[in-house]
């Protein structure tokens, strides 16, 4: 019966050296030739069955794509270019070689358009559910990364698309905004930026906290995705879904420069706190997006 080393041998057959990857997966460590003029950006993301996907519903290739795309979205949020990644997979006992290969194909399908090479990782089997982790390496390539700390009073607040209802399927099929994030960084447009994984209300609070500012969000300006109308009734309004659902993977950024290609939803202010302006009345916008419990 095929085991871990059969999968590792197969993965090695999928690897190739290039100008960046001097030695791909197959040794104890991969070897990359990193230009001394570039910054190296590193991030890691863990995706768990029962939390981020349902392995009984979602096929392994789709799961692999989501794991990689979450990491690519982090690159987009800092305006860097994806370069390479390593992946670890903990398969439930009884997982097949074909299943593992499909996971890998999903990772590759997401990473290949950005020349993000999978250069290594680890596999194991255990008595728990499927867990997949990707560590990604990004390159600045001469452009200063955009952080969460640069928002200033007077900046506008922008999002790159409609929000809410991603649980109906978009949380598995989204396209990371890598090119747009790079353009915002390269042209000096974004002063602070984050990807919307945990919900607009929570992610905007992260920017405000790290920048030492506050924010006012105009309720009428928040773009609500059409998927929200198809959600089962749960007592929440469409606006509440757009503010709090999370896993939209759009970019949220601040800018002193008006930018027509995205959606203006508010402004940064000096006073701490995040506020929702509705019909001329301001109310505190409590962060209510996703938060893991530990």
Question: What this model shows, in words?
Answer:
This protein has 294 residues and is of the alpha+beta class. It folds into two domains: 136 residues, PurM-like, N-terminal domain (60s Ribosomal Protein L30, Chain: A), CATH 3.30.1330.10; 129 residues, Phosphoribosyl-aminoimidazole Synthetase, Chain A, domain 2, CATH 3.90.650. 26% of the residues lie in helices and 27% in strands. The chain has seven helices and 13 strands. The chain has a seven-stranded mixed sheet with strand order 8-10-7-11-9-12-13. Helix 3 links the parallel strand 4 and strand 5. Helix 1 runs parallel beside helix 3, helix 2 runs parallel beside helix 3 and helix 2 runs parallel beside helix 5. The longest helix has 19 residues. The two termini are 38 Å apart.
């Amino acid at each position: 019966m095929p085991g871990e080393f059969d999968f590792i041998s197969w993965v090695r057959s999928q690897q190739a050296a290039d100008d960046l990857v001097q030695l791909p997966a197959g040794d104890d460590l991969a070897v990359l030739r990193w230009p001394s003029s570039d910054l190296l950006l590193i991030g890691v993301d863990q995706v768990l069955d029962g939390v981020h996907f349902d392995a009984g519903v979602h096929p392994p290739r789709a799961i692999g794509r989501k794991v990689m795309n979450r990491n690519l979205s982090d690159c987009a949020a800092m305006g860097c270019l994806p370069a390479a990644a390593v992946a670890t997979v903990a398969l439930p006992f009884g997982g097949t070689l074909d299943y593992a290969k499909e996971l890998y194909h999903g990772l590759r399908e997401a990473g290949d358009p950005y020349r993000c090479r999978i250069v290594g990782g680890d596999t194991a089997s255990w008595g728990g559910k499927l867990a997949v982790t990707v560590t990604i390496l990004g390159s600045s390539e001469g452009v200063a990364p955009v952080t969460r700390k640069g928002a200033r009073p007077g900046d506008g607040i922008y999002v790159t698309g409609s929000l809410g209802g991603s649980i109906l399927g978009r949380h598995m099929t989204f396209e990371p905004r890598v090119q747009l994030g790079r353009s915002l960084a390269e042209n000096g447009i974004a002063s602070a930026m984050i990807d919307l994984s945990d919900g607009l209300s929570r992610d905007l609070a992260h920017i405000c906290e790290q920048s030492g500012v506050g924010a006012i969000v105009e309720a009428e300006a928040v773009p609500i995705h059409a998927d929200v109308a198809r959600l089962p009734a749960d007592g929440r309004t469409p606006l509440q879904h757009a503010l709090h659902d999370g896993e939209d993977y759009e970019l949220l950024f601040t800018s002193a420069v008006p930018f027509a290609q995205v959606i203006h939803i508010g402004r940064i202010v000096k006073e701490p706190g995040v506020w929702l302006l509705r019909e001329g009345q301001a109310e505190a916008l409590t962060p209510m997006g996703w938060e893991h419990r530990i």
